[in-house]
Amino acid sequence: MPTYKAPLREYRFLLRDTFNIEQYSALPGFKDAPLDVVDQILDEAAKLAEDVLQPLNQIGDREGCKLENGVVTTPKGFKEAYKTLVEGGWPALVADPAYGGQGLPNALGVIFNEMVSSANMAFGMYPGLSHGAYSALLHHGTDEQRKTYLPKLVSGEWTGTMNLTEPQCGTDLGLLRTKAVPQADGSYKITGTKIFISAGEHDLAENILHLVLARVEGAPAGIKGISLFLVPKFLVKEDGTLGARNGVSCGALEHKMGIHGNATAVLNYDEATGWLVGEREKGMRAMFTMMNEARLGVGLQGLSQSEVAYQNALAYAKDRLQGRSLTGAKEPAKPADPIIVHPDVRRMLLDAKSFNEGARALLVWTALHGDLSHASGDAQVRETGDDMMALLTPVVKGYLTDRGFANAVESQQVYGGHGYIEENGVSQFVRDARIAMIYEGANGIQALDLVGRKLAANGGRGVFAFFKLIDDFIAANKDDKLAPFTAPLAAARKDLEAATTWFMENALQNPDNAGAGSVDYLHLFGITSVAYMWALMAKAALAKLSTGDDKAFYETKLKTARYFVERILPETATHLLRIRNGAAPLMAFSQDDF
């Protein structure tokens, strides 16, 4: 049976030692999160993840969701677990206090969501998507919409979805056919079919708020003519109580490779009543508020499955006896040594461990920049926060999910044949992790977004600000003890800048050069970003070692940092070489050559 233990020591190291969140204690949100309160939140979140959600993970995988007569039933235990989540106030953790939220920093929300997703990724998608709907309405809804709907979303009494994809269009939303017909009372009648709608229908909450992209009759073709609409499952009366069932129904549930515990629905809209969110024909602007948040959440899913797969593979490697160490028996009293003595098993485990700890730091660091972009009184800090959030969203989504899936596969490999047997549970981590590379914009699209849009945004301000952060850190930390981490980081940063410059010089004359090198660039960026995090953590670990407390933890942290910069970071040179080879090796083939 698989297990999960929340990495509380890692979270505390990041929040206390690496990022020192106490320095922000005067800012909104942070002032309500002193470290003693944070510790209590982390402890209670761990109990929820370990004791309530993790035991349901395999149940959800085996049972899946069921659709009968238009009603979707979630797996056994999910409804009770969701009630526990709501009663604990968890959906309100980082929401605006004006609507019943606790107003805590998003950096803390990222940590909570990692625990939930590691314990039960399919379950975590129900409240996760609700928070995205909350954000879209918070930023783009009318005062009346916020007053009516946000308190219920914040409390978790109602859930939310995002409806983009249709049978004939996924990424190319300009092809969507769902139509919206204006009504005399200011509402719209929404008609069309949406597919792949996560948490689209379920029995966990009494109402579901669908945010639906549609085209108003007469609007321009293509993506510029799209508007966003709020379409509740049940209409809401003036007094806030639920009224009649709206014209939206679940036509089918998808049969999927993984995340069986989440209801992935086909939703049919038959003149359903909806209300415009934001400006007419500016729907993508409003939806991107939700999509960008969702993309960071999906990047988190990549980390979460890598973490839980690693934990179980590590336990198996310590227990499974097979062969003898190449340098002589390590446990001669036993018939064989545990497989963790073998270098290649250690390689697989350390690839995952060094990624997990570095990626976790990158997620928290990025979330902190998002917090500072709103809370800081310094205009430059707010600008840098905005730039880092925009720049790193495709990196976090793409790199963390690619690498997270690969680590889940390697963790399965540690088990050998036993990893292919469902009862051991590790195969579920592989299957669940796979979707994260696909939805919320497939990773190839994330790479194109990074190269085609994010690099050029504001004249390249974001990427050059990122280079400066690394340069300033290296310049300020000339300590010889940090050199094993800063010198490789400087080399990787040089590779990243060289790749950036190459795109600037070669992508305009031949756009295929950007397309051919975009995924390599995304990974180059991801690896360099994680290396930067490892340099920050190495500095923190060295400082704490001098105090003599928890010496083993900090020494292991430094050894893991060395592993990443010596075994993983050199990949940046390979990515740069591929980028510089341009599009010719790919585009030289005719279709008949394949």
Global morphology: globular
Unreliable residue stretches = none
Q: Could you give the order of the helices and strands?
A: HHHEEHHHHEEEEEEEEEHHHHHHHHHHH
- Assign the structural class, choosing from mainly alpha, mainly beta, alpha/beta, alpha+beta, or little secondary structure: alpha+beta
Strand content: 5-15%
Distance between the termini: 44 Å
Main β-sheet, spatial strand arrangement: 4-5-11-7-6
The value of Rg in angstroms is 24 Å
Outline the biggest β-sheet: 5 strands, mixed, barrel
Count of distinct strands:
11
Please tell me the overall pLDDT. 96
Which percent range fits the helix content? 55-70%
Number of helices: 18
Question: What's this, in brief?
Answer:
This protein has 594 residues and is of the alpha+beta class.
Describe the structure.
The protein has 18 helices and 11 strands. The protein has 594 residues and is of the alpha+beta class. Strands 4-5-11-7-6 form a 5-stranded mixed β-barrel. Strands 1-2 form a two-stranded antiparallel ribbon. The longest helix is centred in the middle third of the chain and has 37 residues, at 283-319. The chain is globular. The protein starts with 7 loop residues before the first helix and ends in a 7-residue tail after the last helix.
